[in-house]
Amino acid sequence: MGKAIFIRLIALLVLILVISSTVSAQTDVADQPSAVQLNARQHFMDMKFGLFIHWGVYSILGDGEWVMHSRKIPYTNYKRLADFFNPQEFNAKEWVALAKNTGMKYITITSRHHDGFSMYKSKASTYNIVDGTPYKKDPLMELAKECEKEGIELRFYYSLLDWGREDYAFGSEIKDGKPVKGDWEGYIRFMKTQLTELITNYPSVKGIWFDGEWDRKTADWHLGEIYALIHRLNPAIMIGNNHHLSPKPGEDFQLFEKDLPGNNSAGFSAEAKIGKIPLETCETMNGSWGFNINDRKYKSVKELVHYLVNAAGKDANFLLNIGPMPNGKIQPEFTDTLAKIGDWMKVNGESIYGTRGNVIAPQPWGVVTAKGNVWYTHVMKMPADRKVTIPVGNKKLKHAELLDGNVKVSFKQHKGTVILFLEKAVPDSLDNVVKLKFSL
Ligand code: FHN
Q1: Is 0.90 surpassed by the pTM of this model?
Q2: pLDDT value at 232 more than 70
Q3: What would the CATH number be for the domain defined by 29-351?
Q4: How many whole angstroms from 280 Cα to the centroid of ligand 1?
Q5: Which residue(s) pair with 207 in the sheet?
């Protein structure tokens, strides 16, 4: 072989290597999060409180979003619900104002749940609210515009699982990483097209919240490609996946369902080790995600405020769910409770927003959140002697006051602890927040 040919061969080889590494960079998640992603994560942790919305054609039957399964409705019959879905009273302004007045900083709404119905205008499936219902309008577009106007972040829930599509072939056995029936590659392509629509047609969207991976634990979901696609389209979008497992490469926040991180009280998170990315926990206002006309197990204002505070104490955001009615209205039991949570947030929001948790382990009386040299002691269960002892190490406490009313609190610092004397606190208050200012 001549020297010139040899050099050409080497050059060709180098070119092939460069091209293949570029291609893999486009289809795989990056090893390290970008600065944009890291910023988005910090901002997300600062927001702390969001509104989760489960809304779809299932709301017509008033029995939750799993009604097709619980009532054993064949998919061909279930699909006809779209013919009656006409939420004339939906008003994006009212929904965004509700979130804002509750003290929430973001909204995560179902763009498509397990029934496969798209709540937005999708070219990839006519089974969507614009092309498949008498309503003919796109509520997600209206929400996106209103959220942008009001400074509320918008995020989309997206179901990986689909009960109705032939390419998904729900119920099929999985062999070698894919279902035996259906068209797995076709289904993955379909999802990529829909996600591209959601990101490019709603450019203000800041997060994608996946769900349903647990339906096919042994399938190859092509998540690396899907995550890389999302971050390529918009690096600032945060990806979370409710797979109930430890975080996977490419994910920006870890989700916990009906569960404070580390507690596994709902039984979903046995396999989920807490990772190094931001955390979020979601919970329902009664017992249902989608509208359920019979579910009257409403959680009290106190329970929900405590959930938010305990989540913040564990460094997690709280995503509180509502299931709007089929007419687009939100039931008064929810709006009343949310208004009261909003009142609490107006006084105490400073002890939640922008704070970080895991300052000290949760105590019998409550938790601590912190912002630099300021700690917020959340006394949710007042000790009978009205004294609270906080381990503070070698930090020097300068000043302590009740956040509600700025009432000075007396204290004693002793051997690595601070003892607060809370005789001026209201014992049955939802949460007596004591602001502690330490010296620098
Ligand atoms: O099956 C869904 C359910 O309908 C709902 O969307 C919740 C929300 O966290 N996630 C799934 C169950 O894990």
Answers
A1: yes
A2: yes
A3: 3.20.20.80
A4: 14
A5: 155, 238
CA of 211 to the centre of ligand 1 (A): 7
- Ligand 1 pocket test: pick from 111, 211, 320 the residue with the most ligand atoms within 8 Å of its Cβ: 211
Decide: 253 and 279 in contact? Cβ < 8 Å.
yes
Each domain of the chain, given as residue ranges in start order, spans 29-351, 366-438
Q: Is the CB of 65 under 6 A from ligand 1?
A: yes
9-22 residues labelled b (16+ CB within 10 A) or e (exposed) = eeeeeeeeeeeeee
Q: How, if at all, do strands 238-241 and 205-211 pair?
A: parallel
Distance 160 CA to ligand 1 centre (A): 11
Place of tokens 């763009």: 111
DSSP string across 268-291:
S-TT----SS-EEEEEESSS-SS-
- Specify the ligand 1 atom closest to the Cα of 258: 9
The CATH superfamily assigned to 366-438 is: Golgi alpha-mannosidase II (2.60.40.1180)
Beta strand 410-414 pairing with 374-379: unpaired
| pLDDT, position 23 | 39
Q: Ligand 1 pocket test: pick from 257, 269, 282 the residue with the most ligand atoms within 8 Å of its Cβ.
A: 257
> What confidence tens digit (pLDDT) does each residue in 50-62 have?
999 999 999 999 9
Q: What are the pLDDT digits (tens) for 16-68?
A: 443 344 333 446 788 799 999 999 999 999 999 999 999 999 999 999 999 99
